[in-house]
Write a structure and sequence with these properties.
homodimer, about 425 residues, Molybdenum Cofactor Biosythetic Enzyme, Chain A, Alpha-Beta Plaits, Maf protein, six-stranded mixed beta sheet, five-stranded mixed beta sheet, 15 helices, 17 strands, about 25% strand
Chain lengths: ~425, ~425
């Protein structure tokens, strides 16, 4: 099935917002086996929107519109769609009730623009929004011999994603005419793209015509995506199984899971299984490790808290890092990382402490510790450990990479079976 | 002058790469006064590219193509353009020399695919690449009475940007038919889109034909963008000035700045100017406030650290929240928020403490405190304050919204001039 994306918003055209919705939808639809053929962005302009709607049905069986569903005067998608499909807008009382409720629960009156959100073009299904007030819209029809599916979603990424996952994806998966291209994703951690590619060279040589292997690096690690191009067959599945086994053999403990699993989840499951609690002592990461660990619902089972010790005074006063240690070795050093990890264990009364102290940049670099340097500390009841890593020049990236490296250090130390040496790694 | 962007690449369609080129070009072209009317992405597919080229000249005076200019077999832009414009490819010897040189300087032999980069469609100008090997291409023609400009740039962002800045922008700026459009963006905080729209209704009524006002909501607040369509004139500037003044009058202290400024920066500047230090006591936000404050380079001037007190035990042991208080009122309560803010002031020895305790979800909601509820605490040497807010159902969004609300509470308390009551707010 072919899909077109129509993303709407002046802010996209003038570059005030980067079109992450197109990338997100492209990825999800491809994974379901749809071929995204074209993505178009136009402004909040009824004529342009109509032009693009006119074009899409010629080739696409699915058109996804995003944006312009909000309550304000420049949100015109609802009206344009109603007009285009000759489907007059009608107020859906159940939705109007829900919207009124939505505001009441927050102790507010529904604003005068609220009822606009309850208007639905005749013949369109509404798709519940698990996150916000604006509902999504869905329409199925047949044009000649062809199916035509239209999904209309809000432009706010979290709302768009929520409605897609809860309502659009299940509708697509249930169809016979959406046929699988099979994907399998292996999540790796603690190894960069180039090193991984070296290790997997023999696997790459075995892929053949029908399977692709893609490297998807990010600050959370490198995802490996295997794609069997002609889909659902048992033979394709067997081949993916064989390749997965080979990759696991060669990438060792760097493969932390499959699918959508994250490093935070893997570590969380490990901690829960071992009935172990964790806390972080953060300088360079500024709270990001805590933020990432608490991104997982249920993390209170194993995560107690963090001390963000950005100022040296806090490292001393709260975490008990020695004044002499700071003076002699500097804040970005092995003994400080170890004392921070040990200190947070004591202060928070947790089993495992993990620590970061580094130079995220752009300023603060020295000859010995250039921007991108970080010392990671680990402490549990039996041992402490510190590791030095060097990443990139960019502050935002470094904070993410430092946090990932600290989480990965904890994962490996907690799960340690071998004494295999760590590889210095980067996302590329 | 109207512009269309045609960005080429399978990786954009399947979401492996986010289309940052479209945002970058959109921003630059808008700033020059061109109206970007449409952005289209298609794969590395000659037929689709031709389709889109066929469409663009009907309305756009400038077409910018990016991507598919590299040396590999799936880079087909050069061939498609040559064919479409009936401009046979010819090898440009000077460019071939430069490419050979480019590789030699890097101690490498020109790869067999190198000469492909020196092929230029007849009648096209070449645009030097200050960063990489592939040159850009430029073509001017007249179709009927209309000018038609075509710029073809590589897809690698640094190369695209380099060629645009050094060769495309000067060519556009030199033209009489490129005239400015003016943008002005006001950043707001602590007020939702709907409430803002209510307040700004009289402003919206004054816009007239030549100015647009757009609302751009996010978890960090709502940006307001004014656009004067016919550009550069002093009259347009005056009108934007008048509208900005009106908006500031009506939105009051919710307007925190203009342009690209963020809430974290505004708060940081405030703290630096007042020589005030801050620390956060975080339960529901899990470290996100610290992470956001330390996203700003130089934040060590005013940010000392945080205590992430996710477990109640940490609230008691580290922040000194009373056991009886927790028992009597529960963790998500006014007195706990206040004691956390006051506690972190003491523990970290900072001037201002800000605290969050809430239910991010999806589990943990109660009748009294449904998912999305947060108590925000503020404490300085003179007073404490707590505010209850209610946001959404989604964990990720809630964490961001809680953190934004806490940062905004600190901003307003520190900058407090009036006793104007806060408005309960949401991104919509």
């Amino acid at each position: 099935m072919k899909a077109h994306l129509l993303t709407i918003g002046d802010e996209l055209l003038i570059g005030q917002t980067t079109n992450t919705n197109a990338a997100w939808l492209g990825e999800r639809l491809s994974r379901l086996g749809l071929e995204v053929e074209r993505t178009v962005t136009v402004g909040d302009d009824p004529d342009r929107m109509r032009d693009e709607l006119d074009r899409s049905p010629q080739r696409a069986e699915l058109v996804v519109l995003t944006g312009g569903l909000g309550p304000t005067h420049d949100d015109v998608t609802r009206e344009v769609v109603a007009d285009y499909f000759d489907a007059p807008l009608q107020t859906d009382d159940a939705i109007l009730d829900r919207i009124r409720h939505y505001y009441e629960r927050r102790g507010r009156q529904m604003p005068p623009s609220g009822p606009k959100l309850a208007q639905v073009p005749q013949g369109f299904e509404t798709l519940e929004n698990p996150v916000g007030a604006a509902v999504g819209l869905w329409h199925e029809s047949t044009v000649g011999e062809r199916t035509r599916l239209v999904a209309i979603l809000p432009g706010i990424p979290e709302e768009m994603e929520g409605i897609f996952e809860s309502s659009v994806r299940p509708r697509l998966e249930a169809r016979d005419d959406v046929r699988g291209m099979q994907h399998r994703t292996l999540i790796t951690s603690g190894i960069g793209e180039s090193s991984l590619q070296e290790r997997l060279r023999p696997v790459a040589e075995e892929l053949g015509e029908k399977v692709r292997l893609a490297y998807l690096p990010s600050t959370n690690g490198v995802r490996l995506r295997l794609t069997a191009l002609d889909g659902d067959s048992a033979a394709a599945r067997d081949q993916l199984d064989r390749l997965e086994t080979k990759i696991r053999e060669r990438a060792g403990e760097h493969v932390i899971g499959t699918g959508d699993v994250t490093l935070e989840e893997v570590l969380g499951n490990q901690l829960r299984a071992a009935e172990t609690t964790i806390g972080s002592a953060e300088s360079a990461t500024g709270g990001l490790i805590g933020h990432r660990l608490t991104g997982i619902s249920g993390s209170s089972d194993y995560y107690a808290g963090s001390v963000v010790a950005y100022a040296n005074r806090v490292k001393q006063d709260v975490l008990g890092v020695g004044t002499e240690t700071l003076d002699e070795f500097g804040a970005v050093s092995e003994p400080v990382a170890v004392q921070m990890a040990e200190g947070v264990r004591q202060v928070l009364g947790v089993d495992v402490g993990v620590a970061t102290t580094g130079i995220a940049g752009p300023t603060g670099g020295t000859e010995e510790n250039p921007v991108g340097t970080v010392w990671l500390g680990y402490a549990d009841a039996h041992r402490t450990r510190a590791v030095k890593r060097h990443f990139v020049e960019d502050r935002t990236l470094n904070k993410q990479l430092f946090a990932t490296a600290a989480l990965d250090l904890a994962r490996r130390e907690i799960g340690r079976k071998s004494e295999e040496e760590d590889e210095d790694w980067m996302p590329r």
